[in-house]
């Protein structure tokens, strides 16, 4: 595992479509909580299990469907990004795939 401040310089440079950055969020108990692969050119996010990390604190995860990570990823991908000229990742990915 590499701490963000210790990443190679190439990780900050512009990238080609299809390059991705994988981050892992570590929970309070030191165990991996959720994986966040991000396509670097479009900022498109695909969240990976466990979904409990996406729920508000104190929420009982048994009341949520297994599709919760996909729903949360959709919300993230529909948010405009300054780095994308106020486009959202879903729009940028669609434009990239249509080219």
Characterization of this structure:
The structure is a single chain. Strands 1-2-3 form a three-stranded antiparallel β-sheet. It starts with 19 loop residues before the first strand and ends with a helix. Helices cover 20% and strands 17% of the residues. It has one domain. It has helices spanning 68-77, 89-98, and strands spanning 20-26, 32-39, 44-45.
Low-confidence stretches: none
Estimate the strand proportion: 15-25%
Order of helices and strands: EEEHH
Structure classification: alpha+beta
Mean pLDDT: 76
Q: Helicity level, as a percent range?
A: 10-25%
Which key phrases capture this entry?
alpha+beta, 99 residues, 3-stranded antiparallel β-sheet, 17% strand, 2 helices, 3 strands
Give a brief outline of the structure.
This protein is of the alpha+beta class and 99 residues long. It has two helices and three strands; from the N terminus they run βββαα.
Note the topology.
Elements (H helix, E strand, L loop, with lengths): L19 E7 L5 E8 L4 E2 L22 H10 L11 H10 L1
Antiparallel strand pairs: 1-2, 2-3
